[in-house]
Records
---
Amino acid sequence: MSQSKEVRYTARSITPPADRNGTSKSKSPTPVRRSTSRSPPPKKSDSRSPPPRRRSTSRSPHPRRHGRSRSRSRDRSRSRSREDDLRNPGNNLYVTGLSTRVTEEDLEKFFSKEGKVQSCHVVLDPRTKESRGFAFVTMDTVEDARRCIKYLHRTVLEGRLVTVEKVRCFSH
């Protein structure tokens, strides 16, 4: 007595198994392989719709899109230190790492140890009117500014380690 096994077909099966005679049990054509993803199959494009646009391969410059040329920015970066010296003689200082409690008066008192202070400007958040943690200090002379950088850089003010640097100008 022969025992026949019942075979179940799933959506993933490619072809039905053959019986003992080597013939397929199903009389229908070979089932089509189906995707296991749940997303719908991609739609075929309608012959009436235009083909997708491609970017132009021309090398003509677009003045609004590109802004400045690369060669100009490279030239500017090479001579930046010379230009900075012309724009900033060295008496403008950039101070970072400040506590939110530091006021312009506190800064003036802190920097006056090393020379005469022309002006101080603590940068404030426009919405909260609280210090953003950095300031600009203008010293009377370049020597005073150099002394401040030398002796006040990486010192503690109101419990915070502050940095003092010469301002770098980046005007366009």
---
Amino acid sequence: MQLILCLASVVGGILLAGITLKAMYLAEKPHGTMKLYEFIVFGGLFMLILAQIPSFHSLRHLNLVSLILCLVYSACTTASSIYIGHSSRAPQRDYSIPGSGKDQLFGIFTAISIIGTTYGSGIIPEIQATVAPPVKGKMFKGLCLCYVVVISTFFSVAIAGYWAFGNQAQSNILSNFFASDGSVLVPKSLYMMINFFCIVQIFAVSVVYLQPNNEVLEQLLADPKKHQYSPRNVIPRIISRSLVVAFSTLIAAMIPFFGDLTALIGAFAILPMDFIIPAVMYNITFRPSERKAIYWVNMVIIIVFSGLTVLGCISSVRQISLDAKSYKLFANL
């Protein structure tokens, strides 16, 4: 499930990179004719280059840049949403929940899955923290830092974006920065800068999520008796990584429903790994008495999130099928 999650995150990253590149293109040429899948291919090609970075350790400088840009990008996006909300060109805001009762119900489970994916970002420091002792201390510090960044960035963007655009807020809030005539609602230089920061952040995150799959493939294909950079190991590495990125790019171009894809990732992988599996492992490892509250708290978590996982998968697949009726493969969203 971790490997599926990582691969799906790479697909989502390449897709979001393509969406961001197209947004920058439309800001310069509002009536441009290039299609979304073309920008997804451009994103995939750049990802193909970054995918050749050898290991997690090689990404440490890129990750630092990613963290800084995440903070800057979120601050700029929040400020831009507030600016648009107070401007004379601000769109009409409607905070009602659209759709019928059935659509709203399924929308709740889809939203829970998306939230699970968003705040499941801590899975990377969790995995890294188990590599070397002391596990508990390192994991706690890593998660504290992770969630400080998550809360300061995601919450500010979500609140400001929803305040500015209401129920018209899209899964990529930067898509709301365009007026009905195709012009940008913020200074163009600021909009291009935000998108540039976003693209760098996307690629940095995607390369991180690509590494676990690379490790698995290279354990199968590499010869440990040969040097890491010998032709015997470099050639299979380049081929395997290129094929993974090419496959991810193809899926991103074929099914460009970013919000729906995020929901499916969350329902299928994040909810079980972040909520169900830890509770199960705790009960199995420490065997608390059935008379203790911790045992029943874990059981409630297991039951509730098992139900949310099933319902989240159903609702996200349903939403993808509904969108598929409106859009064809390789749709130009």
---
Amino acid sequence: MDIVDVTEKKLSVDTITELVSDDTCGAVSLFIGTTRNNFDNKEVLRLEYEAYEPMAKKKMLEVCASIRQQWQVHKIAMIHRIGVVPVKEASIIIAISSAHRKESLDAVQYAINTVKAVVPVWKKEIYADDSSSWKQNKECAWSEDCPATASGPAGSSQGTADD
């Protein structure tokens, strides 16, 4: 079972973990990307995310399919938050269950790296000095060819909380 979503709601580790938990599995591995309070010697107040939701969900399902081709996993959940994400709160949670830990650990690392590279989600950092910056994600598959990488979601690059 693959569960993907893009939401403005605050993410719950417990709720998302429960989505993938199963009596047949001995492991649930998680990645939680959170907003940190600093970047490049600037104080970050919050992140603001935008997404092309239909494509984001489609790409996350493709990542799930790729995981299933490589590892024996049971359930996968990928939930990305959009809108305002305050410091210390999660912008993405990926949870993967498997019979044994190696599969889910390897799969969750692959999942976050791949999501950052292919899912159309854009991140704007808001700083304490009243400035802001759309952040380019170095893993973004289209970052070199993007026509307006610094201008915002219309043509900008993608990012997630752990950049």
---
Amino acid sequence: MAVAELTDSINGHWRDRARALQYRIRDRFRIAVDRHRRWSEESDYSVTLRRWVLRLRALLENPSSSVSSSTSLSRYSKFYRKRVDKDVDLIDDSVIARLLQAVAVPLIGNACHVFMHGLNHIQIYGAEKLHQALLQRPKSTPLITVSNHVASVDDPLVIASLLPPNAMLDARNLRWTLCATDRCFKTPMLSAFFRCVKVLPVSRGEGIYQKGMDMAISKLNNGGWVHIFPEGSRSRDGGKSIGSPKRGVGRLVMDADSIPVVIPFVHTGMHDVMPIGSSIPKIGKRVYTR
């Protein structure tokens, strides 16, 4: 009897933790706004505080109303969706840009594939799911991949290691990714290089409704593939833990014209290939990707 009670107690504990985690994920990706104006993009108000403000406003506008709090909340709050045109950034869609991408992306991608599979030891689980989504999804269906971020070369090394070499010969099929302007776009030469390898600029601190995010959604609206690191920065403990996800992934999913295919994966060992502070990737290391 004591064993059964202990088992029930343990199960209840883990159910409570799973429910709490579910609520945290739901609240992080929810963007509640007022009917007449959006909440500030940089606001740090919690969802609970927003809920009470909306309830108070409803009471002040209609004190005699006997509408329940849940009904008033649904009346005065809703999800905000910002539509993005398919041609938000014509520079990346120019003939010259496409020609440069057609040369640079396959060349660098296959070099990274050889580096990871030939000079390091990488073990991959479930790569066929990414291959199927990349090569067999309908043309108009966008693809989003998300992963943890450990080293500055997670992209392109990990991404290239997951794909067969022949899939990287066509730059149009490969991913777009995002990088902070203070890292990848500091000089005109760096900017030109990273645009040639399908990297979009985002500015730290400008929120999820900035131009870089609009550009990423534009790629999705054209049936493209966008890879994003939801943590927003590299892990500081060598990948032992994953930081809290930012809201950018939620916006990519919510604001795309078509519901995207979302494939998450996690990798370990990249902190050995490219430790923080190192400028040259190491060889002979072991990496696992799931």
